[in-house]
Amino acid sequence: MTICWTTDDSWKYRQVSRFIGRYYHVMTTTYPDVIRNYHQDHISHVFLTQWAARSDQLSAPLSAHQCLYPVSFIGEAHGRRKQRVQYLLDRGIPVSCFGYGWPHGPVSADDVSKIMRNSIISLNFANSRGRRDQIKARTFEVPGAGGFLLSEAAPNLENWYVPDQEIAVFRTDHELLQKIKFYLSHPDIRDRIAIAGFERTCNAHTYENRLDSVLNYAVKVKNRTISKADMSLVTEAAAASTPLWIRLIRWILVRVCSLIWGRDRGLKASRRIVFELSWRIAKENTFSRSGWPARMFPEL
After folding, report:
1. What phi, psi does 73 have (nearest 5°)?
2. ∠ at Cα 229 (227, 233), nearest 5°?
3. What is the pLDDT of residues 243-278, one digit of tens each?
4. Which domains does the chain have, with CATH numbers?
5. CA separation (Å) from 88 to 62, 147, 158?
6. How close are the terminal C-alpha atoms of the chain, in Å?
7. Most distant CA pair in the chain, distance
């Protein structure tokens, strides 16, 4: 049973995933809208999953009165993050920032969990480099570490936590400012949400939970995988639709490589040669179903 775990929705990465998808029992993604792209490529065994919290870093929340930092953010200083933090600082909100591009600089993995747990409010910005807003690992790591999460809204975030009950969510700079002021002045509500978020994370959002769900799905898919005989028919059909000149080039190439490396290794060597040539000439199209490797070697 084979599983390919993907978390990147970039165009180039999806091209690779589509090309190799039929060789795995399960393809995973953290992006709901990417599933239809797989389906269009006739890859139906796609499972929607998400980031999670590490179980070895789970810690019960501290009360707001025990925390060292009023507001903290951990992450790189890119996009609008510096402007947003400055917006808060200009309005009297004490924000401590850690990571590349901030005065405090990066911190160790162990310190990340400690800072989140010792912050009355931990901020999470949903932006990423050159891409749309998205759910991040930090979304689960903060509640798992015992922190109180105030996260920027992202698509489908409500499927993982209940807003204003297990985490807090903002959409604009003004709303961000108002929610920070509210939770700093209402520590009892903040503590209640932090506890609920921690419990939800322990019960549903650890990597053990994620892997268990993926494996259960993989078993179901494997049990209904088409037989080798059926796969043979698919391969024969694909070969029959390939132009004669392509089949002729394949025959010559495989023949030569088989004389050098033997039948099995020769076949794989032939495909490798075609792949390398195609990548230098056709670039990304190499990974598509219309690319040379897929057309010349549909059975591999």
Report:
1. -140, 135
2. 115
3. 777 778 888 988 899 999 888 788 888 888 988 888
4. 1-50+206-225 (no CATH), 55-205 (3.40.50.2000), 226-300 (no CATH)
5. 24, 20, 25
6. 17
7. 78
